[in-house]
Amino acid sequence: MLEHLGEAQGALTRLHLGPFTPFLVTHPEHLRRILRTNAANYPRGAAMWKALSRLVGDGIGGEGAQWHASREVLRGAFSGAYLAQMGPQMAGSIDAAVADLGARGGAGRPLDASVEMTRVVQRVIDPVFFGRLIPDGEGDRLGAAVGTAMGSLLWRMAMPFVPHSVPLPGDRAFRKATRTVNEILRPVVTAARNAPRDGGDVVTRLSNGTGPDGAPLTDDQVCDDIVALFVAGSESSAIGLTWIWVALAQHPDVARRVRAEVDAVLDGARPAREHVRRLTYTQQVLREVMRVYSVGWAVPRTALEDDVIDGVPIPAGSTLAISPYLTHRIEEFWPDPLRFDPARFDRAEVQSRHPLAYVPFGDGVHQCLGEAFFQQEATLVVAAMLSRYDVAVAGRVTPKLSLTLQPQEPVQLVVTPRH
Ligand code: HEM
């Protein structure tokens, strides 16, 4: 369906999906109006966000004063300075997770890439989110419960007009999963509150943080924001990492060049943060992967008041679906858009391109907090994997649209130790 919609090549189009008639927005100049110059008129608020707020509250996953307060508190946890401070821990966790992955995939046994990449991501976020406050293994259990709760909201997202008094499939699973989430998170938040510390981790920052009225965030708000970060950061990263292996398998010449760069830069050492900056081609490849496989393929907004964009009237109350996936396929900005070409991210190319032609992490006030985090994490994962293994993908992989752009069938990774 998406490839078909791509024929619009940036034109603002109204979709007719039964009773649901959102505007599809892809042209960078239209994005500029919605995400930057008239952003106040286009808050979150569409059906997806409303359903999601049952899980993530109205902090960082929401809109308005509470969102703003949460964003201010969390900004530090994703700053360059904190990423640098966390660098050794992140690199160490990734390398250890990648070594374990190899042990499971010995003797050519295929591994499910998204399961493996989720394991890696979980190991990385545990210290960043929780410091040392969460018991071993509970981070995995929390991630699984949040995943289940998200999955069980799909019906509510698809049928936002059904009142909550009317049961829908998924409601029971949702309640059970959110009970588990609370069971795990409450003691962690209580522990952080009872023994205040200076840690830079997310739980400590939120527990010490204040809301729009200057009062400390409540336990509910702290828990909501942690869950929101799980939702925003963990599945998207794991899927993004999974697509990297698909792209490298489909482009062996690119894969060879990435591996040569990793070998030259690491020079026999284990991957560390100081290598990331020097892995320039690898980083270009990651950007191209995020262009072609835009995990957050659609980002909804709602118009508060009537507006006109490029001559098209947008009535108040309309839903607008921004689609980074389609923006990344507009010929005017991406010649031969289906060709996988990391050179699109050479410095000169980037500087001459429209600044909103590349938006895998959104733009404007809600721009992804975790973009630099992901770029660092993904570069280290690629370096750790390719320095240890020859990596192959068995079978063909096609994309499928869910809330995120996912592989239709499990991606089978085959890893063979190099030495
Ligand atoms: C492949 C990886 C990722 C992709 C494709 C991605 C994509 C996005 C996009 C498109 C948005 C904008 C949503 C909007 O405009 O409403 C967003 C927001 C956000 N992302 Fe990411 N993200 C990724 C990884 C992460 C990670 C690793 C974290 C944190 C651990 C994170 C945290 C967030 C947060 C907190 C927001 C909401 C920001 C706000 O509303 O102020 N993301 N992300």
Automatic annotation (TrEMBL):
Q: Which keywords appear in this protein's UniProt record, sorted alphabetically?
A: Heme, Iron, Metal-binding, Monooxygenase, Oxidoreductase
Reported cofactor(s): heme
Q: Which domain of life is it from?
A: Bacteria
Q: Which PROSITE patterns match?
A: CYTOCHROME_P450
Please name the InterPro entries in this protein's record.
Cyt_P450 (IPR001128), Cyt_P450_CS (IPR017972), Cyt_P450_E_grp-I (IPR002401), Cyt_P450_sf (IPR036396), Cytochrome_P450_monoxygenase (IPR050121)
Q: Which Pfam families match?
A: p450
Q: What PANTHER family does the database record attribute to this sequence?
A: CYTOCHROME P450, CYTOCHROME P450 12A4, MITOCHONDRIAL-RELATED
Q: What family name appears in the similarity comment?
A: Belongs to the cytochrome P450 family.
| The protein, known as | Cytochrome P450
Q: Upper lineage ranks?
A: Bacteria, Bacillati, Actinomycetota, Actinomycetes, Streptosporangiales
